[in-house]
Amino acid sequence: MVIPIPDTTAGNYLETDDFTDLRKLIEMINADKYTFDIVYSNDMASIKRFSKNESQIIEGRLLAPTDYGSQVCVINNILAEKYGLAIGNRINIGLCDILHEQHVGLGTVSAGARGRYTTPVKEVELEIVGTYKEFTGSLQQGNTPHWSYSSNTIFVPLSLFTSQPGKFG
């Protein structure tokens, strides 16, 4: 059997039917650079990675119970460097209403949209109160339930969650 090779000589070959799947993949990758993992926590000190110093605040502070009801966040130092962000800066984030993980024992709730690219249900402007750094490797997600967070992980107070805990996608 001979598999036909799509014609890539035309300048607009990505617009042809032969490249529909590739075009969708490119669109998803481009959209993903603006996608953030939101972790909701009333007390970041109770998160195992922070209590074991595998993730550490390098500037500012952790989220604490006193942040409940506030529009604040803690971001990764790589994200801060990439966008030139600092403590006291404000960022706009779209929040979704479906949990994809609930680690109550770890002090966190993670939420996102099914399919990752649906429209957020709530837009918030958050003040950056801390930046953190991962110290034990960035590719541990499959090896342990206390995996490291990505550079696009943003910690926010649980009070910003837009639905009831327990609602899973």
Description:
It is a single chain. The chain is α+β, with helices and mostly antiparallel strands and 169 residues long. It contains three helices and eight strands. It has helices at 20-32, 48-51, 77-83; strands spanning 37-40, 55-60, 72-76, 90-95, 98-103, 108-112, 122-134, 153-156. Mean pLDDT is 75; it is low at 101-115, 138-142 and 165-169.
Short description:
The protein is of the alpha+beta class and 169 residues long. The protein contains three helices and eight strands, in the order H-E-H-E-E-H-E-E-E-E-E.
The span between the termini is 42 Å
- The share of residues in extended strands comes to 25-35%
The helix/strand series, from N terminus to C terminus, equals HEHEEHEEEEE
Average pLDDT score: 75
Enumerate the spans where pLDDT stays under 50 for 5 or more consecutive residues.
101-115, 138-142, 165-169
Q: Give the overall silhouette.
A: elongated
For this structure, the quaternary state is single chain
Q: In terms of structural class, how would the helical and strand content be classed?
A: alpha+beta
Tally of helical runs = 3
Number of strands: 8
Give the biggest beta sheet.
8 strands, mixed
Radius of gyration: 19 Å
> Approximately how much helix is present in the residues?
10-25%
